[in-house]
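Re-run with default settings, no changes from the original entry. Doing this only to confirm the output is reproducible before filing.
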Amino acid sequence: MDGNIGVLVEVNCETDFVSKNEVFRDFVKNIAMQIAATSPVCISKMSYHRDIGAGLPLEQVFIKDSSLTIKVYLDSIIAKTGENIVIRRFFQI
């Protein structure tokens, strides 16, 4: 491997208005960086994607702000956007 990492993450929201919002887009980018940095254990060569609940613990410390967990960060984005947001699945190569 050449040291490059790729992450594909599916994050669902309720409307296209929120999906185009910069707050939401930054959140998705940060979650992808979290996955790249922590290499969640649910990713295997046998599977292309897994449900996030099995792989990225919501209690995990957020890499960009150690005072937050992923759950607290997710809840803050839900509060800012006013919509339910779900980190559905991911794939890391």
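The helical segments are 16-19, 22-38, 52-55, 70-81. Confidence is low (pLDDT under 50) at residues 42-54.
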